[in-house]
Write a sequence for this structure.
């Protein structure tokens, strides 16, 4: 059982309990109905109702009872933990690892390793992925430890309150900085590949070149939206496909995957207003390319 406590400030005085939980703390309407119906919310130690009016100094306590069963087998797979608190776990996923079991990848996934970690640390959690990365994309993945945390983090992503920064190595000499604001969708229902297409979902990618040679460039990217394959599609569309991206570019003889890394995530903690900045070191295969082309990347000075 997860226990959450909120101290009501003067700014929240006069608000209904359900509105406070929904708009200030990120609870979904469905979850609010569930916890109030099952007598899991208390104000100053007394069972609370959704329409109760909050006063400064009130203490709101929530007990979350959850179904912790999940069909993911724990496996002793090392995971690189970048950040952890009572609500989330942030890990640095290596390239060539699937994030969640599928029909073709029943084991060896990031979720199998995370489940093993939860068991070893005696945390009664299931694996709730807040964001996902392609098998061949490395970098930061957030796992929520509760239904509340999953919904709240998903809402932060939806409202663009999580700053998502990537590093890519692309083909050709690329210069300057700019924004690609072009819609993306499947050309057909059975297509794995996406493309820029009129009437598709709006997709916005900000880019800045931070180093280039005649053959390759290293590019910083910030996503304003989160469409499937968004960075790969946009970079290919403007004539600079990611090195090694066989789906949107071509096979490379110097890297065995697309050279794309989810480098940094910045967001506020779910409990409190502290800023969390998670950074994942660039993997060795990408560093080798930068070395080959004499491109410098200083992670400690990256902004």
């Amino acid at each position: 059982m997860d226990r959450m406590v909120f101290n009501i400030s003067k700014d929240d005085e006069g608000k209904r309990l359900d509105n406070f939980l929904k708009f200030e703390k990120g609870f979904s309407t469905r979850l609010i109905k569930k916890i109030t119906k099952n007598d899991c919310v208390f104000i100053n130690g007394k069972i609370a109702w959704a329409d109760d009016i909050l006063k400064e100094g009130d203490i709101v306590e929530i007990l979350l009872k959850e179904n912790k069963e999940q069909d993911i087998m724990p496996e002793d797979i090392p995971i690189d933990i970048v950040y952890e608190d009572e609500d989330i776990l942030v890990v640095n996923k290596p390239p060539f690892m699937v994030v969640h079991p599928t029909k073709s990848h029943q084991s060896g996934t990031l979720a199998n390793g995370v489940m093993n970690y939860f068991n070893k640390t005696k945390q009664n959690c299931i694996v709730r992925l807040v964001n996902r990365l392609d098998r061949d994309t490395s970098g930061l993945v957030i796992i929520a430890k509760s239904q509340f945390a999953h919904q709240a983090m998903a809402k932060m992503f939806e409202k663009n309150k999580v700053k998502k920064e990537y590093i890519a190595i692309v083909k050709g000499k690329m210069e300057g900085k700019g924004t690609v604001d072009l819609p993306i969708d499947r050309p057909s229902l059975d297509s794995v590949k996406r493309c820029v297409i009129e009437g598709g979902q709006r997709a916005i990618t900000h880019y800045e070149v931070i180093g280039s040679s005649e053959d390759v460039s290293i590019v910083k990217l910030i996503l304003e939206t989160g469409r499937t394959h968004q960075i790969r599609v946009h970079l290919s569309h403007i004539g600079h496909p990611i090195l090694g991206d066989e789906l949107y570019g071509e096979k490379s003889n110097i890297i065995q995957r697309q050279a794309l890394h989810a480098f940094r995530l910045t967001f506020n903690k779910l409990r409190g207003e502290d800023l969390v900045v998670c950074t994942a070191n660039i993997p060795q295969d990408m560093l080798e390319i930068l070395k080959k082309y004499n491109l410098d990347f200083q992670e400690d000075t990256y902004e």
